[in-house]
# Entry
Amino acid sequence: MTSGLSYFYTANSQCLPNGPQFSYTFYITLTGIVGSVIHLIAVMLYQTFMSSWKYRPALIFSMVLGSLATVVDLIILMRWNVAIGIPDKVFFLLGSATFENLTNILHAIPMAAIGAKLAPPGMESAGIAYSASIGTFCFMVTNLLGSAILKWSGMKTVGEDCDFDSLPSLIVVFQILVPILVGVPAIMLFIPNVHQTELLIDWKKERWYEGEKESEYETSSIEDEEESIAEMNGKGLGLQVEKNLV
# Structure
């Protein structure tokens, strides 16, 4: 639903006379600067308070907090902030621009830690690349599904007399209810309930290092055999030379 919100926030007076009508400089540049500062604060908060948590509580907390942070967008959509006298820009910066970036980092850090610990020793770069490619693919699929849902809802986002009436209900369903009702059970089912300092896979128990030793032994055996053959060939060549001299 992010694309629908972007159209709502940046719609001009002809499209949405009573909308926020944010300029692209404010919506992209200033919000990006604020987001960068919030990212740094989020990393410090996570390191101070959440680094000792188990994976499940950390992920559930960040997911639920991120879903509830969408209420800020919902308030702006319904124009409730204007009704109580809070300007759109102030409410957006103190609300959506802050909490969205905060919860994104709080959720991304434990997910990155899980991806790193699932990578076999010696294959960390491949494991991280594989995880990143899956995340990128899922991001593209969700964007396509979101665009299809917006089109199916009959929302008009450009031109004159735009229609964003269905956007609040879509926000409630797909950005609040679905992450909580689907994401939380998925975390409980697929994420181990261990501390972030613990190993997720005991690679010694999985005999990963034995495989490495065997491969090293095979490689060294092949090299030794090649050296022996080279020595024998060298000795044979030397004897042949001596015979020729005689």
Remarks:
- The two ends are 91 Å apart (CA to CA).
- The CA atoms of residues 10 and 24 lie 7 Å apart.
- DSSP finds nine helices and no strands in the chain.
